[in-house]
């Protein structure tokens, strides 16, 4: 009797162990499970697209107005501006220190935005330039202009104060930026202003 119980016990243990081993092995022809792992580095590098559109209002008794759209995709910000009411010819446009356009002459927006403490100059100049030194554009005979500008030195509402253009102002000047005069290029009267506010 004891011998029969012992034999049955050994047979049961062998059978149990054999079943466990079979469960571990995948049957031939069984479909493979595919796992997808997201690459965190790729996700970090691909920033979601952000867009903000602002309206320029006339200043200094001008009729200059317009609309500017800033779009950030990945690590680049694109500025697209449509302006009207200008005198035919060249004018300057800059980003200024604050989004305050309350004064009639636009001076409430402060000086050029210059978070890296550089001299005023032409964008990209080796000698230095302000992060707000966009430059000059040309208005047609009807006083209209379109400006396109792109850079990876700006961002929309990021944590880097040397790049973040939110809460800054955009000023259109009556004159031309000479890229030399300090600290603002001697661009003349501020004829239009808008705050970059989201």
Tell me about this structure.
The chain has 198 residues and is an alpha+beta fold. 15% of the residues lie in helices and 29% in strands. It contains two helices and eight strands. It has an eight-stranded antiparallel beta sheet with strand order 5-4-7-8-1-2-3-6, with no helix packed on it. It is globular, with a radius of gyration of 32 Å. The model is unreliable at 2-13 and 15-45 (pLDDT under 50).
CATH architecture tag: Sandwich
SS-based structural class?
alpha+beta
| Relative helix content | 10-25%
Per DSSP, the total helix count is: 2
Average pLDDT works out at 81
- Topology, number of strands: 8
Sheet with most strands: 8 strands, antiparallel
The main sheet orders its strands as 5-4-7-8-1-2-3-6
* Terminal residue distance: 88 Å
Number of domains: 1
- Low-confidence stretches are 2-13, 15-45
- Supply the CATH class: Mainly Beta
**Computed Rg:** 32 Å
Query: What is the quaternary state of this protein?
Result: single chain
**CATH topology category name:** Immunoglobulin-like
Summarize the structure.
This protein is α+β, with helices and mostly antiparallel strands and 198 residues long. The protein contains 2 helices and 8 strands.
List the helices and strands and how they pair.
Elements: H1 2-24, H2 40-45, E1 50-58, E2 65-73, E3 76-84, E4 89-96, E5 135-139, E6 145-151, E7 169-173, E8 190-195
Antiparallel strand pairs: 1-2, 1-8, 2-3, 3-6, 4-5, 4-7, 7-8
Describe the structure using short key phrases.
disordered N terminus, Immunoglobulin-like, 198 residues, globular, 2 helices, alpha+beta
């Amino acid at each position: 009797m004891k011998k029969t119980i012992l034999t049955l016990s050994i047979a049961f243990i062998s059978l149990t162990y054999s079943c466990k081993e079979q469960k571990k092995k995948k049957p031939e022809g069984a479909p493979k499970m595919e796992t997808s792992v997201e690459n965190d580095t790729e996700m970090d590098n691909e920033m979601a697209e952000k867009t903000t559109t602002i309206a320029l209002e006339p200043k200094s008794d001008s009729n200059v107005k317009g609309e500017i759209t800033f779009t950030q995709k990945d690590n680049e910000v694109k500025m697209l501006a449509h302006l009207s009411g200008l005198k035919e010819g060249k004018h300057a446009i800059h980003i200024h220190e604050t989004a305050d356009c309350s004064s009639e002459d636009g001076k409430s927006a402060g000086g050029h935005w210059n978070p890296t403490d550089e001299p005023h100059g032409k964008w990209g100049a080796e000698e230095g330039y302000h992060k707000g030194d966009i430059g000059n554009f040309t208005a047609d005979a009807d006083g209209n202009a379109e400006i396109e500008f792109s850079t990876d030195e700006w961002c929309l509402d990021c944590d880097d104060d040397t790049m973040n253009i939110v809460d800054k102002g955009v000023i259109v000047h009556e004159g031309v930026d000479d890229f030399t005069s300090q600290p603002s290029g001697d661009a003349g009267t501020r004829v239009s202003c808008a705050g970059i506010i989201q």
